[in-house]
From TrEMBL, chain A:
Gene3D superfamilies: Cullin Repeats, Cullin, Chain C, Domain 2, Winged helix-like DNA-binding domain superfamily/Winged helix DNA-binding domain. Pathway: Protein modification; protein ubiquitination. Belongs to the cullin family. One of its GO terms (biological process) is signal transduction. Residues 1-15 have a biased composition (Basic residues). This is Cullin CUL3. The keyword Transferase does not apply.
């Protein structure tokens, strides 16, 4: 007997003195026979109690290792037999992949079916063997540190069947599995049950060295490799054969199929890996090709507003790293391209119409501006819709679209003016017949464009000019709409941006009160009443965009001069210390003209009135030359030409010009047109309406803007330095930029010049010792 | 758990819904025990396997199980332990206690084995 220590306590089962070996052999023979019966499915003749007791006794008598090895041997023998008699005969015809002899993989399917049976038999038997060897598992296997008998059975199955050294079972199994999957990918119906059984088997077996499943070590990599290759080929084939929407549908279908496949018969751990492969081979590798497909790619989808396809692309391409970036940049480029086209129609239009812009017909510059804004708004609407319907309102896309809009809008240097003109147009006539909501939505849209403008100060300048004209000429349709627009600008840019605009409104209101008072004053006055009705609007010079500090030259008729004097006395009597200057270039007059046919009431500008009154002293047919008119009226040349044009070359020809023509030239002769007829009694001579500025005007505006920027920059510098007292150059520049960028993007060189100017004027000084640092001088 | 043990010992002694007959012992010292497979299987891994559908033999709808190498006296204690979880070892002679120790090892009643060993 062995002298090894008994593992358990002092109390021992009684020892049998006679030959233990004989007893063992007897017990073992019966057990081995029983296991064979189990393998033969004859278990019903066996007694659990007896077999268990046999094994129990063997372990008890320290023959656990012999028992364990014996069991291993019996099972191995059995599995070898199974391999030869069942598995090998079921091998599919040589070359499992030769689909000619085996078109539907039937041989393969049969092989899997046999394997399934073999595996199921083995596990069933192992469960029964485990039952009768439970004592061995509990007592022997644990102390001897060997696998439990069921796990031993799995390992033996792995080594004797799946990875048999004697027969190419493994090769056949893997090939058949991959072939079945390939068939399924090609829309053949396969028996998933058999495939799943084999896969489950591989998942239950463990690789000894990696402790991973045999599925992972033997199958998965091969599966992924063949899938990679399969989809690499398919990707190339599909991009060649299908258009973009069809291609994406196919990819969608493939992704879905692979996901289903994993769910039905592969391991869930394979799901992200196979998904990556399909995404890589079918999406990543063909991103650009699909986006750029002629007649069906991203741009044609946008052009034809194929929201479903765009949505599919967004979802599909979002799966891979570069997908959305490629889409974003393609769409942004497209927006820029469309924007460029819009900008180009404008420039070609303005140059084409440059010659007759002043002719006063519908093709004025203003329509170009309105059309430009409308086209930009339409474009914005289109991409808002895309964003909303196809792109899940993705913020990253929105940002990139906004940048594209910003880019081309600012490429058009006239955009601030155009947007202001668009608002002007809407507030003058476009809003008639629209509901308040419609008005609000138009203005809101306009604000979105306003946000894109880099030079908001330039916009402000134009807006002021256009607002001034609307107010002074009474062209504004709705006070509420005007205030609504100012409210929106205030929200965007703060009150500083709009104080002057609000001041203009105030002037209008106060002037209306003043006129009521003036009428009362005249009624009570003992002075001689003026022979004409005078209506005066008093403007605070700092609020209004025009240069109001000086009166433009113009010789007014004596009655008017006198009336003006009366008002001036009245007004200055109430507000001492103020100065009034008359802006004759901005007034209008109602005058009555007697023509051969009838009398007409003419609504004209002050200048036109001055010009027409000159003809009162003239006989019929007596003409005045351009030079005479100019000399007598002293009206500035540009204004004179424009007003003469309105009188002699436009719709209502109150004057007749010799020689005829659209342009006013020195030496032209003008006659009062006695034969003038018109259906209406009251006639409005079109004053020059708001329109796109001429190059000269633009230059002037630009200069004014630059001048204003100088002041704003200096003010910002002083504000900052007053607060910080001392500051380093770069920090100061950064802070100034930060404060001003909501209005315009200041150029560092400009800021530097302003700093130098302020040093010269002793607001600042350079710090002693460090010339990069400035001090504020109180 | 006193109530529970008591009720379960009643099931063991009186219940008429048993479905297992266990023949215990050899030759003269032989006795039939009646028990419930549900309880046996729930309490002992040995019986869990022994009474599984793969292994049982039935006579007249009764599971018949034979356990010759354990004496009825010892098996009586085993059953008591299985049903109630309690055994008062003091009441029994040492020879029976020894038999109980061996039986609890074979039947994989680990808790009982430890308990008897400590005793």
């Amino acid at each position: 007997m062995s002298s090894r220590k008994q593992p358990k306590g002092k109390i021992r089962p009684p020892k049998k003195p006679n030959s233990a070996d004989a007893q063992f052999n007897d017990n073992w023979d019966r057990l081995a026979q029983a296991i064979r019966e189990i393998h033969k499915k004859n278990a019903s003749i066996l007694s659990f109690e007896e077999l268990y007791r046999n094994a129990y006794n063997m372990v008890l008598h320290k023959n656990g290792d012999k028992l364990y090895n014996g069991v291993r041997e019996v099972i191995t023998q059995h599995l070898e037999e199974v391999a030869v008699s069942q598995v090998v005969p079921a091998f599919p015809l040589s070359g499992a992949s030769s689909s000619q002899t085996n078109p539907n993989g039937a041989g393969g399917a049969n092989f899997l079916k046999v394997l399934k049976t073999v595996w199921e038999d083995h596990t069933t038997c192992m469960l029964m063997i485990r039952d009768i060897l439970m004592y061995m598992d509990r007592v022997y296997a644990k102390t001897a540190n060997v696998p439990l008998v069921y796990d031993l059975g799995l390992d033996l199955f792995r080594d004797t069947i799946v990875r048999s050294q004697n027969y190419p079972i493994q090769n056949h199994l893997l090939e058949v599995l991959l072939q079945q999957i390939k068939l399924e990918r090609e829309n053949e119906i396969i028996d998933r049950t058999n495939v799943k059984a084999s896969i489950d088997m591989l998942l239950e077996l463990t690789d000894a060295s990696t402790k991973d499943t045999v599925y992972a070590t033997d199958f998965e990599n091969k599966f992924l490799e063949t899938s990679s290759e399969y989809y690499r080929v398919e990707g190339q084939m599909l991009v060649g054969e299908y258009d973009a929407p069809e291609y994406m549908k196919k990819v969608d279908k493939r992704l879905n199929e692979e996901e289903q496949r994993v769910r039905h018969y592969l391991s869930q751990t394979t799901e992200p890996k196979i998904r990556n492969i399909v995404e890589e081979e079918l999406i990543s590798k063909h991103l650009k090709t699909v986006i750029e497909m002629e007649n069906s790619g991203l741009i044609p989808m946008l052009r034809n507003e194929k929201m479903d396809d765009l949505g599919r692309m967004y979802k599909l391409f979002g799966r891979v790293v570069k997908g959305h970036d490629e889409m974003k940049s393609a769409i942004s480029d497209y927006i820029r391209e469309l924007g460029k086209a819009i900008n180009e129609t404008v420039t070609s239009n303005t140059t084409a119409e440059g010659g007759n812009a002043a002719s006063g017909d519908k093709q004025t510059g203003a329509t170009v501006a309105v059309r430009w804004v409308q086209e930009v708004l339409d474009l914005k609407d289109k991409f808002d819709k895309v964003q909303n319907l196809a792109l899940s309102n993705d913020k990253a896309f929105q940002t990139s679209f906004n940048e594209a809009f910003e880019y081309f809008i600012n490429k058009n240097s006239k955009s601030p003016e155009f947007i202001s003109l668009f608002i002007d147009d809407n507030l003058k006539k476009g809003l008639k017949g629209k509901t308040e909501e419609e008005v609000d939505s138009v203005l809101d849209k306009t604000i979105t464009l306003f946000r894109f403008i880099g030079e908001k100060d330039v916009f402000e300048r134009y807006y002021k000019q256009h607002l001034a004209k609307r107010l002074l000429l009474g062209r504004s349709v709705s006070d509420d709409a005007e205030r609504g627009m100012i409210g929106k600008l205030k929200v965007e840019c703060g009150y500083q941006f709009t104080t002057k605009l609000e001041g203009m409104f105030n002037d209008m209101r106060i002037s209306s009160d003043t006129m009521t008072d003036f009428k009362e004053y005249l009624d009570k006055s003992v002075l001689e009443k003026p022979k004409l009705d005078l209506s005066v609007t008093v403007l605070t010079s700092t609020f209004w965009p025009m240069n109001l500090s000086a009166s433009p030259r113009c010789n007014l008729p004596p009655e008017l001069t006198k009336a003006c004097g009366t008002f001036q006395n009245f007004y200055l009597g109430r507000h001492s210390g103020r100065r009034l200057t008359w802006q004759s270039n901005m007034g209008t007059a109602d005058i009555r003209g007697s023509f051969k046919a009838r009398k007409h009431e003419l609504n004209v500008s002050t200048y036109q009135m001055v010009i027409l009154l000159m003809f009162n002293d003239k006989q019929d047919g007596e003409s005045l030359s351009y030079e005479q008119i100019k000399g007598e009226s002293d009206i500035p040349e540009a204004d004179l030409k424009r007003n003469l044009q309105s009188l002699a070359c436009a719709k209502y020809k109150i004057l007749v010009k010799e020689p005829k023509g659209k342009e006013i030239n020195p030496g032209d002769q003008f006659n009062f047109n006695n034969d003038f007829t018109a259906p209406l009694q009251r006639i409005k001579i079109q004053t020059v309406a708001s329109k796109v500025e001429s190059e000269g005007e633009r230059k002037e505006t630009r200069e004014k803007v630059e001048e204003a920027r100088k002041h704003q920059t200096e003010a910002a510098i002083v504000r900052i330095m007053k607060d910080r007292k001392t500051m380093e150059h770069n920090l100061l520049i950064a802070e100034v930029v930060k404060q001003l960028q909501s209005r315009f993007m200041p150029n560092p060189a400009l800021i530097k010049k302003r700093i130098e100017a302020l040093i010269e004027r002793e607001y600042l000084e350079r710090a002693t010792g460090d010339r990069r640092v400035y001090n504020y001088l109180a | 758990h006193i109530g529970l043990s008591k009720d379960f010992s009643l099931i063991l002694n009186d219940a008429d819904d048993f479905n297992v007959i266990i023949q215990v012992g050899e030759s003269k010292n032989k006795k039939e025990f009646r028990a419930h497979s549900v309880i046996l299987r729930a309490r002992s891994p040995y019986f869990k396997r022994a009474l599984s559908s793969e292994w049982i033999t039935k006579e007249n709808d009764m599971i018949v199980f034979s356990k010759p190498n354990i004496t009825p006296a010892v098996f009586d204690m085993v059953l008591k332990y299985i049903y109630t979880g309690e055994l008062e070892l003091k009441k029994y002679p040492g020879e029976i206690i020894l038999g109980l120790l061996v039986a609890s090892d074979e039947l994989l009643l680990g808790e009982l084995f430890e308990h008897v060993q400590d005793y």
